[in-house]
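Listing S7. Sequence submitted for prediction.
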Amino acid sequence: MAEEANHFEDELDESVAVDDSADALAAEDSDDLDDTGTFDRSVVARHTSATPAPSVEDAAEDAYAAPASGFGLPVLLGIACAALVLGVLVGRFLLGGGSMASAGASNSELAGKLVVSEGELDSVMATYTYGGETYPITAREAILESGSLQASMDADGNYRLPSVDAVLTLARNRILVQEAANRGIVVSDEELATYSEATLGTSDYASIAQSYGMDEEGVVSLLRESAVMSRLRDEVVDSSAVMTMPEAPAAPESTTETVYNEETGEEELVEVDANSVATPEYASYIISLAGDEWDAATGTWASLDGPYASVLSVYEITPESATYEAAQTAYYVAYQLYSESMGVASTAWTSFVNDLLCNATISFNTMVA
C-alpha cells in the first residue's frame, strides 16, 4: 500500500524540533508590550529576575560533548544552524512537518516489514516528484541520512527501517539542495571544514562519526547538505535586518564593606548586595546596547519613548555608572528585539521553503513510526 502526499503542505511552521531561547522569548513578545506598544516594566522585571537563558551556541557545544546515545548529529546540526543562520525553524536540517493524505496502492517488497536483510537495503521506501522528475529513496539512503548501517543493525543481522519522518526529511533536504545547485551554490572542502568547526567545534570528521555512531562519509554528506542549505538561506533571507544575539552582562562578584556598629561600638565587615553596586562597565554595556537612544553629548537618554529608555528610565544611569540589575534589564530588552528580528527572518525562510515544497509530491511504499 502506498501513502502519497499530494503536496508538501505549508505547515512547515507547525513542527519545531528544536525550541531555542530566541524562539521561546519571541512567543512572549506580544504579551510584553503595553497598549502603547512600549515594553511593560512589570514583565521585564519578571524576566530579569530569572537567570538569562543560555545561548544556542552553548547548547550546541553541550550537545557535541554528549555521547552517541544522547543528541543525534542531525538534531545537533539543526541547533547549530539555528545559531549560525538566523535561528529559523529546524527539523533534522532546518525543516519542519508536512501533511499527508493516503491515495492509491502499490506493491512493495517492504510492505509489512520493520526490518530488512542486507540484500533488501536498496529496496525503495519512497519516491518523490519535483520539477517534472521522479526520484527514489532507498532504505539504505534513508538509514545513512541520519546514522550508519552498523548502528541500525539488530541482533539477527537485519537492519531496522528508518521512520517515515526520516524519509520525508531526506526528500525535503534533497529538494532544497537541488534549489541551491540551481542557484550555483557550492561548498568547497575548505568551506565545509570551516562550517564544521563553527557548528560542531571540530572538522575531524572521523571523530564526529565515532561520537555519533555514523560513517565518516555520512557525516561529511550531512555537513555538506547543511552547509549548502545554510548558504541558500543566507541568499534568500535579508540578514541585514537581523540583529546580533546580545551577550549577557557578567555577573558581579560578591563584595564587602566595613560599617560601624553603634550597638557594639566596633567596625564590622558586612556583605554588600553586588547587584546594586554601580560600575562604569555596566554603564558602558547599557549605552552600547542602546545605540542612538543614548545621547552622548548630554549623557542621558535622547528620548524616553524608545524600547531601552522606556524600560531603563527607572534606573539611575550615567556615562560612568550603572548597576548590574539595570544591565540585566537592558540585556532582556536586547534579547527581545533580537528574537523579534529573527521571527521576521523565520517567516521569510518558511515562505520560501513552502513555495518549493508545495510543488512536490511524495509516495511511500511503507510507513514506519
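Caption to Listing S7: primary sequence and predicted C-alpha cells for the chain studied. The longest helix spans residues 324-357. The longest strand covers residues 124-130.
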